[in-house]
Model the fold of this input.
Amino acid sequence: MRANWHEFVTMMVQNNFDVERTSNSCSVSLGEEESVYPASFHVVENCGVFLARVRGAKKLIEVAQADSVLFTAIEAEQTTTVAGKTVKIALLSSKNAELLRKHLPFMKPVAFGRNSFSLGLGDRLGLASPGHLRCLAGSGIRPVLAQQSIRELTLTERTYGDVLDAASWAVLQEGFHDGFGADGDHLKRSEDIKMALDLGFSMITLDCSEKIDGNVANLSEAERCERYQSLPDVFRTKMEAAYLDKTFSVGKSSVHFAADALQEILLTYGETLAFIAEIDAKFIKPHHQPVDFELSIDETATPTTPAAHYFMASEMEKAGIVLCSLAPRFCGEFQKAIDYIGDLASFEAEFAIHAAIADHFGYRLSVHSGSDKFSVFPIVGQYTKGRVHVKTAGTNWLEALRVICRKEPDFFRELCRFALARFDDATKFYHVTTDLTKVPDVKSLADNELERMLNEPDARQLLHITYGYILTDKDAAGKRLYRDRLYQLWNRYEEEYAKVLITHIGKHVSLLKKKI
Ligand SMILES: [Zn+2]
Done:
């Protein structure tokens, strides 16, 4: 049967707070005005807690079984009595999330280490995680539910606290006890790393791009030699002794350091070494719980060569820095929200070596901007044997728009027109090669053709990179143009949103596992 929160409390009391019996007597129903999330029911510290919709809004319901410190501490909007028990109806606030995380450890993020198969899911809206969790259930793939860069936080006007809370509430809602990750993605500054770790984030992706010199490849040989000679003698001598003209075997392949390649690597990546060591010593090693430490060298203009990858890995190992994963920049293009652009055979050849290097040093490869890279997923799975991390690029946002497109076509058309007007501004933040002339004219599309805007590459990119403006732009009176209406609709159509995510992420999962 379906129950509202009131009926659920009555059942709970009748069943003497027995979780299984109570949850099993109520069916899951999302998105209705009055309904309960039965999997969220837990008994802790002498109280029963669960999530429910009360007049359409998601609330935390808390029922006192006996005297309880937790019950008293939860801040409530309303306190009432049902079936002889005191009941609090509370907001899904940050303070309440923090309190519950103390008592229900599965609501806290955990590190996954060097051997798992994980997927970064980056929920930009704070609404996608229930669908993501259902999609990954039973797949053997572990979810990094919270995954945001500072750029994404700024564009959506959210904080890491908001991002973490949304993930915690989602695991409670789904009753997911297997552990989720939280990734401070592409962090460059000490203060951001500290903030993420202080909040309880379990993964740090250190972005070294500001310490990488991307211009070295453009230097003439004479210029390169001159710059190389100006490096400190001690550094040069040490590196030459370790790498010059040497060949290292990795799996079935090998990596060789010719003089010019070594010069280029040292000039390009030399400055990253001290930076990574400092972050590791200051934040990662002393942290009171395990952290998945990922190194990202992917935000560069040219692909990471196998030699450069080997060099970074080897220097990390020598410095005693334990990487959980490393993200090289692969050949071809990993643009947001569309399939891989490039030659698959070259990708496969290079990926095989990168995977062998990662195996050799014991960490996992990390593939960034992984949304919709369907043509390379079987290769990624095959060569890593599922010991890999793949970050999706926030395309759960496009799936959220798919719900709007199906339910409110005229509103969706308006959003498309707005996105077009804001496209140029958005290209400041994202590298895309979108051809706007290929974007269909929404006026000419019938309702049942409108999803072309979400299925064709150019239209997808248009809507993908303009999310910040759609969510935060204001009218002349300072009121948000679209945000409130969008959230109302997504809230109402929670079930539909979960379904489209299961289809979308499910396709990623099956292709990643295809050749394992
Ligand atoms: Zn990246």
Q: What stands out?
A: The pocket of zinc ion is lined by residues 186, 296, 298-299, 327, 368 (CB under 6 Å).
